[in-house]
Amino acid sequence: MGKLEALDIEFSDNKVVYTPGESISGTVTVKVNQPIQCKAIKVNCNGFCGITSKLNDTAWTTEEQYFNSTISVADKGTLKQGEHPFPFKFLIPATAPTSFEGSYGKIIYRVRAFIDTPRFAKDYSTEKPFYLLSLLNLNELPDIWGPSTSAVTQQFTYMLMKTGTIVLKAQTDMKGYTPGQIIKVSANIHNQSTKTTGHIAASLMQRVTYETKKPTHDLKSMVEVEGGAIKGGRELEWKEQIIIPPLPQSSLAGCELIKIEYYVKVSLKSPDVTLTLPIHIGNVSLDKKLRPSKKETPSFKKDPAASVSTPDAPESSSRLTAPPQPAPKPAPRPAPRSRMSSHSSPSAPPVEYHSGAEGGNLLNDDFPNKRQSQAVSPNAFSYAPGLFFPQNQLPNVSVPAPSGPSSRRSAGATAPYPSAIDARPMAAPLNTLPPDYDTSAYPQEAPPSYESCNT
């Protein structure tokens, strides 16, 4: 090396991995065996991203600078024979992205030292890289909780003829992982054809996009596991595990030229059926204690009889209870069915019918009114002009009782109706109240009130 015996860069405490916002310090050591004339000794610290369109090429077509600092540790003079240490210190910006090395680009951080000599003399330089790690906390990512799921249905053909359908569903146990953790993959394959499929496989894929005029995509399979085949007409549950190797994190915050994505690819070979399950790889694993709790949704279950109100009913009528005395029997003269009004408007919504419900089974527990309704005898609301109701005794009419959370209780409780409600014969579901006289065509005159009956 001539007059210069050694030119070395050493970091304090032999540290090589730093974080954004941290300071990097060290010493440049110059060892000469003969005196050397120098104009200055400088130390430079820089970080940048360079990408190219050729594989493993260092002639960057596009660059992105993050920081570039230079300090002078020695002025013009003569370096005497021996060893000379020169300390340095730099501050790393808090916005610098994580170090990365790919096939078409790199994010590089380094410290360089220069000995600037007079004209016609040889310059000396050296450099030493260091690595920057910007921690990616998975708990801070949006929509990170819960499994990653996907499903695909695909028809395949053989010799231009349709032979069947494959239904493939898959999921991972989480959406965020760190290196060393295990991805639990589960898949459901339904082979609705007569032919046996190829093997099922799950792969951890890395997709790196280099942003140039024409973006370059580098897709690699990092880990792959394989299962068996599925015979025709069979349905199979397949579970497998993937151990994540040391990999760069998903997000390179602060870098606009390189983007990293990870996903689990679940595929069948013959026919070619594929689905993807996006995941994130970070440095701080998910903490179940930080998982946001699900907000309790208000219950909308209400009893139909309790929520119905009529314009002529007093406010306290809904709180009345049936008297213990039995109701008087109605007059022997039944009202004919032809007198039932066909254009009366009920004061409660009718029961919804569904052709798929059999035997009155509930279609959905959240909606207790969705069942097959049962008709009520017309005599239950028959009107008899000669019928006498004592003042302190109300007719005992069977209506649905408040069922609370359960929707399968029978309607056996009794509750009185106000005197203004028509008591004409009608066949209606249990949760439908008799219509008002305001909207009815028969009878033309209102029935006597309790006071008129007593007089």
From TrEMBL:
Bias (Pro residues): 323-335
SUPFAM superfamilies to which the protein is assigned, alphabetical: E set domains
Gene Ontology MF term list: ubiquitin protein ligase binding; ubiquitin-like ligase-substrate adaptor activity
Chain segments carrying region Disordered: 290-455
Pfam families, per the entry: Arrestin_C (PF02752), Arrestin_N (PF00339)
InterPro entries xrefs: Arrestin-like_C, Arrestin-like_N, Arrestin_C-like, Arrestin_domain-protein, Ig_E-set
A GO biological process held by the record: protein transport
Compositional bias segments (type: Basic and acidic residues): 290-304
Signal peptide: none
UniProt feature, compositional bias: Low complexity: 337-346, 400-416
Biased composition (Polar residues): 307-320, 370-380
Similarity field: Belongs to the arrestin family.
UniProt protein name: Arrestin C-terminal-like domain-containing protein
